[in-house]
Amino acid sequence: MKDEPAATNLLTKLDSAFIRKEPFGLVLIIAPWNYPLNLTLVPLVGALAAGNCVVLKPSEISKAAEKVLAEVLPRYLDQSCFAVVLGGPQETEQLLEHKFDYILFTGSPRVGRIVMTAAAKHLTPVTLELGGKNPCYVDDNCDPQTVANRVAWFRYFNAGQTCVAPDYILCSPETQERLLPALQSTITRFYGDDPQSSPNLGRIINQKQFQRLRALLRCGRVAIGGQSDESQRYIAPTVLVDVQETEPVMQEEIFGPILPIMSVRSLDEAIDFINRREKPLALYAFSNSSQVVNQMLERTSSGNFGGNEGFVYMTLPSLPLGGVGNSGMGRYHGKFSFDTFSHHRACLLSHMGLEQLNEIRYPPYSAWTQRIVRWALGSRSCTLL
Question: Among residues 136, 142, 163, 219, which one is catalytic?
Answer without folding.
Answer: 163
